[in-house]
Every structure is written in C-alpha cells, then in structure tokens.
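Morning run. Coffee first, then this:
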Amino acid sequence: MMQNDVYIALGSNLGDRRDNLNQAIEKMTDLLHCRLDRSSFWQSQPDGMADDAGLFMNAVVRATTDMSVRNLFGRLQKIEEQMGRPRIHQKNISRIIDLDIILFGTDQVKEPGLVVPHPRFHERLFVLLPLSELAADLNLPGCSLSVDDLIAAAPAIDISRLS
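And here it is:
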C-alpha cells in the first residue's frame, strides 16, 4: 500500500484544551503506529460561533500512513467520540476535540461527509499558521499558492502562538 503524508488539524475550546490536544495526539500516535510531527499550540478567538464560545487552542500534526483516507477519517471520528464529542453534532458549537484531515498526500476527495483537502482550511489562520511550521513550502493539491501566500490572503483573526 502507498504511504501518504497526512496533515490533521486539531482544535478544542472546552475543558483543559491543552490536555485535550495532547490526548488526541497520543491517540493518533497509537492509531497510526508512527511518530507525529506537531506544530506549536495556537490560541484564537472562535470563528463563526457565539460570543461566549471560549478561546480555541489549535495545532496541526503531520504523519505518514498507508491507510485509506476513508479509514483514517473513520478512526479520527472514533477518537473524537472516545473523547466525548458526539458523532452527530451541530455546526459551529463548542467542542472537546475536533480532528480534521486537512491534506492527504496529493489526493483530492469529494465524498458524502468527506472532502479533502479540507474545503475551508485555506481561509483559516488557525490552521494555516500551525501548518506553516510543519510545511511552509508544501505544494497544495489543486492550488498554485504556497502556505505563506494563503496566510497573507486569509482573513485576519486574533491569534497567538503559545509557548
């Protein structure tokens, strides 16, 4: 089976956000049976959510896997469920953990419930800034712009890198 580099965005705005991200990274390491490269943690205002939603903590991880994108997606959903996120949930609500496949090799996938590259990652600094730490010169499928170009074009938000 072919190995693919995969980039997964993580976000949390409920409970101990740092612990939530660390737990999810540990579970993904076990799931993928490989070492993950992780960005810094970033804190940002919630995007498109109620004013009282609470600050988000975000990161991006890079791994190499021989799983299919659909298999990986199902396993990431299982991690979300194990950590307390309901499988059926409303859009733009607070969450213990959110795991999104941003990129899966050079694949472009459009299936019910799964679109890769993630359809809005190029507009989101809370994904682009951590992604740039891992792969600033990444060639994005179906796009001629670099991660840095996307950062320059993305809508401004209140975001900061955490130590």
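Strands lie at 4-12, 37-38, 42-44, 56-65, 98-104, 109-111, 114-116, 159-161. Good start to the day.
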